[in-house]
Acyltransferase (Pseudomonas rustica), 353 residues
Amino acid sequence: MKNDTLGELFKNKTNNLNLMRLIAALAVIYGHASAVTGKGPADIFLQWVGYKFIGGVAVDVFFVISGYLITQSALSKNGLIYYCASRILRIYPGLIMCVFFTVFILGLSLTKAPDYLHSQQVWEYFFVNISAFNTAYFLPGVFENLHDKAINGSLWSLVVEVRLYIIVLALAVLGVLKKRSVFNFLFFFSIIAGYLNPEFWKFLFLYENHQHVALMFLIGSFCLINKDVIYIGPGVLLLLMFFAASQHGTPSFGVAYTILIPYLVFYLAFAPGFGWFNKFGDYSYGVYLYGWICQQLVVMWLPESTNFSLTILSSLLAFSFAFASWHLVEKPSINCRKYFKPSFSKPALTTEV
């Protein structure tokens, strides 16, 4: 059984996380289709399960994976300077290029506002969104005739992500990540505090969906810290699925869902037969960044698009942008993190019980 713990699986097996993240990014596009077109039907998951739309599930998957990998990065022997550089180089170059393209190429070519570049709204959109500390959604004269006028409805999650990076950094600086018992105490305290008082975490995460994805990230971190004692196997997965099914339609289903999704993510991460995908690039971030924009463009060009045709066409278009973003911006930026590696080898940081 020891060989089937989460830690041993990550150590000894090729994982499918790149493929899972790409599928999740495409699921976000599918999930947003009805919101963008303003037409039904809702996505299949929402129709069947009735709890949340598939795009929300996909974002939960992103945050579970991110919580695990980001916490692992903070515990790396390369140190916290490398951690900070890696996080900045992974998030910001692709984001800045996307926002620049949106404002100064797409927006400028599509706007119906005569004073577009002189509008304060344009510059607020640019600087607010490239900071990833807040989100702006609208540009003057752009997409104003569409059902949903937001330029990029997906950027909100990056604000939450960056705040969680900072929280992980703070926990690392304080030594919490090296002490399993302390981390676990804070983990359960955070959950209980949020459950007893839903307003408790609003100073960090104002909206309910922000708090939820932060919880999924925290669960991913919890799985990393406790990776040596978390067993991954079909029996446990079936029990969790049965529990979730038994709670469907009850107030407890949200709890069952929140436990099931992270376990399902890590179970599928080691499903055999998909390791070949890792030799390709990681296009998930680019698909996520450009997905909503591409959906708006398709609706603008083909206003009679169905949700299905919108999903197919915008997915192809978003993947084209993602391909260019990965090879021209993201991958070269990520490669620059090597300059922040320490010149000497530090002992690996391990968790303590």
About this structure: Residues 2-340 form one domain. The chain has one domain: 2-340.
